[in-house]
Structures are given as structure tokens and as C-alpha cells.
Write a structure and sequence with these properties.
By secondary structure, the chain is an alpha+beta fold. It is 43% helix and 18% strand. It contains eight helices and 15 strands. The strands form four sheets. A five-stranded antiparallel β-sheet has the order 9-8-7-6-10, with no helix packed on it. It has a five-stranded antiparallel β-sheet with strand order 14-13-12-11-15, with no helix packed on it. Strand 13 and strand 14 form a beta hairpin. Helix 4 packs across helix 5.
Length: 386
């Protein structure tokens, strides 16, 4: 029977069948050829090229098996790291995703006979944490990447610094409270009743810093005081009022100092993570293929501050990517953006203009207590809102 004509229904059906996965028993790993039926596999086994490959494999079978085992192990672990990360997942789920690739290395050409044997081997060699449950075997990838370890150490160091700052500010506040209490305890006042024996007597007030005495004086002393005593009393009253105002200013200055320190800390506080849901970002890595390189996506979720689950705008595919492989997207003027870092982190704003020389953008805050305020921020501190 002759070959089907080009674009005939028979030829189109054959192409559709050849694209999908076929039966494993009709696959030749040595020649990496997939046959569609038993007759095709039989013809392939009788072919000269297949016989030549068998002769090469018979000379050193361990070398070929080790090669296929290494390929299977590397691709399997790469899939776990990229797709599931350090999450605990059933081994059969990972294997089903792995064999969905038509060009994958088949397990029957490796040193492991079953998936359970391979799972136990991963746990024994320390590549994954494995545990057996009534539902089957579960695996959890152990990430030993130097970049990941360095990032975890930086996170621990930053947490320690934050704790030190909080303890320092708490001690400072306690010291200010203690000083305020001591000042109040030192300012003791005594109140006396005003008494006047004669209605014609003049009452003089003494506002000195020493202990207070009775305000009533004898008739002789009151008559001998004169206008100079009244002037001295008024001067003392002014000095006392100035001293009380200065004390209030001192108390207020301590409280204002704390508030200013907190505000300054918020303005100058910058974090090494900037991911936020519902913003548009751009993929910068080529490891995921050219289909995603320099393409835009929408962040759906943020995991552990540094990892984002994004949905690609063009294809709709969902990817799990580290923030090191992403960059912010600057929209056209007039569009809404989100502030990702600095003192205004988390605030929504409207992009007014862009300064290409300074690599900054002028935005108008559209949320929070500072709504309507115009500020200059770097490019990397804002990104387009979805």
C-alpha cells in the first residue's frame, strides 16, 4: 500500500497520532524512536540501524544504562525544583508531568525498575525528603543551591537587625518615660488658703522656686511693700510662667523626637523584596525558553516574599519565578502604578512624567493620608497596576 498523499485525511490523522504520546512497549530507547503499532516496532527491530545500536550497547551496557539513569535523574529533579519547589508532593504526580514530554527518558532504560525504587534512592542519596503514607510515597525537594542558601542567610541577618532596632527603640522610649516620671515627682506643690484679717489689707503673691508659704501677711509689712514689691512679684510670675513653658517644650521635644525617628525610619526603610500581587512584570530569564523571555505577566500570588506566581499575558500560562528574574514595568503617563519600595510602599499613584536622565518618575499619590502629594521615585520602585 502506498504512502498517503499530502494533506489527505489519512496523512493528517497520522501526523496527529505522531505528535501525542504513544505506547511505551513500542518505544526503542537506544534509537529514541517511537513506533505506532506492533508491526512498526517489529520492522524497526529488524532494521540494520537498530541492530547496529544493539551491538554498540552490548560492548558496554553499564555505560549506556548509567547515561540514561543520569539523564532521567537530572530531568526529574529539575522538574521538581522548577514546578513544585520545596513543597511536599506525591511522587506519582511529578512522574505524570515528567512523562507528558514526548522526548523524555523512559524508566525501563534506567537502573530503577519502579518509581518506588527511584523514590527510595532519592531519599537515600539526600536529594529529597521521602516518606511513605497510606496514599503512597511523598517527596520534598531539598534545595542546596548556593544562591538560595545565601539568600536565607541574608534574611536571617535582616531579621536579627530588625529585632535589634526594635529593642533599641523600646529602651529609648522606656528611658524617656522614666525621665518624665522623675521630673513629675520633683515638681511638688503645696496649696494654702488665702486669708485676710482686714479688708483694707493688700495681698501680695510670692512665686519663688522655694517652698510656698502662706500668702497672708501682716498689716505693717503689706503697707511697707509699695509698688516695687508688686513689680518684683510680676517679674517672678513671668519667670515662673517661662520656666513652666520651657518644661512643657522639653517634654514635647522628647515625644516629637520619638515620632520623628519613627517617620524617618519609615521613609528611609528599604527592603530587598518588592513583589506585590496585581502588578505587571516582565520576565528576564531565558531558562524558561524564548516563549517567555521579555514577555509580560501579571502577579497572582507572592510566596515567601521573593517568589511570584505569574500568569503570562500572551499565552495565559502560569509560572513560578524568583524576583531576581523579573523587572518592573513602567506604563505611559497618566496610568496607575503601585509603589513597591521606600517610605510610600503599598500606595497607589498616578504616573505624571518620566525623567530619563535621572532614571526617576514623578507620581501623584492616590491613596493614604498623603493623597494628592507629588513625589519623585526611582524606576525600580514602581510598577504598572493591572
Amino acid at each position: 500500500m502506498g504512502k498517503a498523499e499530502f494533506l489527505s485525511p489519512k496523512a493528517i490523522g497520522n501526523r496527529i497520532k505522531s505528535k501525542g504520546l504513544q505506547k511505551l512497549r513500542w518505544y526503542c530507547q537506544m534509537c529514541q524512536k517511537q513506533c505506532r503499532d506492533e508491526n512498526g516496532f517489529k520492522c524497526h527491530c529488524m532494521a540494520e540501524s537498530h541492530q547496529r545500536q544493539l551491538l554498540l550497547a552490548s560492548e558496554n551496557p553499564d555505560q549506556f544504562m548509567d547515561y540514561f539513569s543520569e539523564e532521567f535523574k537530572n530531568e526529574f529533579l529539575e522538574l521538581i525544583r522548577r514546578r513544585f519547589g520545596t513543597k511536599r508532593v506525591h511522587n506519582n504526580i511529578v512522574y505524570n508531568e515528567y512523562i507528558s514530554d514526548r522526548e523524555h527518558v523512559h524508566m525501563n532504560s534506567t537502573q530503577w525498575e519502579t518509581l518506588t525504587d527511584f523514590t527510595k534512592w532519592l531519599g537515600k542519596e539526600g536529594y529529597c525528603k521521602v516518606d511513605e503514607t497510606p496514599k503512597g510515597w511523598y517527596i520534598q525537594y531539598i534545595d542546596r543551591d548556593p544562591e538560595t542558601i545565601a539568600r536565607q542567610q541574608e534574611l536571617e541577618k535582616k531579621k536579627k537587625q530588625d529585632l535589634d532596632d526594635e529593642e533599641r527603640s523600646a529602651k529609648f522610649i522606656e528611658e524617656q518615660v522614666r525621665k518624665g516620671k522623675e521630673g513629675k515627682e520633683g515638681e511638688t506643690s503645696f496649696f494654702t488658703e488665702l486669708k485676710r484679717e482686714n479688708e483694707e489689707e493688700k495681698v501680695a503673691f510670692s512665686l519663688s522656686k522655694g517652698p510656698s508659704t502662706s500668702a497672708a501677711t501682716s498689716a505693717k509689712s503689706s503697707t511697707s511693700l509699695g509698688p516695687s514689691a508688686l513689680q518684683a512679684a510680676s517679674v517672678k510670675r513671668k519667670e515662673a510662667s517661662h520656666s513652666s513653658e520651657s518644661k512643657e517644650k522639653k517634654k514635647k521635644s522628647a515625644l516629637d523626637e520619638i515620632i520623628e525617628m519613627e517617620e524617618q525610619k519609615k521613609k528611609t526603610s528599604r527592603t530587598d523584596y518588592w513583589l506585590h500581587p496585581n502588578i505587571v512584570v516582565k520576565v528576564l530569564t531565558k531558562r524558561l525558553g524564548d516563549n517567555y523571555y521579555k514577555k509580560k505577566g501579571l502577579i497572582k500570588d507572592v510566596q515567601e516574599k521573593y517568589t511570584a506566581i505569574i500568569k503570562m499575558v500572551d499565552s495565559g500560562d502560569k509560572l513560578k519565578i524568583d524576583q531576581a528574574h523579573l523587572e518592573t514595568v513602567i506604563p505611559a503617563p497618566g496610568k496607575r502604578v503601585l509603589v513597591l519600595n521606600g517610605g510610600f510602599r503599598g500606595s497607589e499613584a498616578v504616573l505624571d512624567s518620566i525623567d530619563e536622565k535621572k532614571f526617576t518618575a514623578l507620581i501623584t499619590l492616590d491613596s493614604g493620608r498623603l493623597k494628592g502629594r507629588k513625589v519623585d521615585v526611582p524606576y525600580e520602585d514602581i510598577s504598572k497596576l493591572a
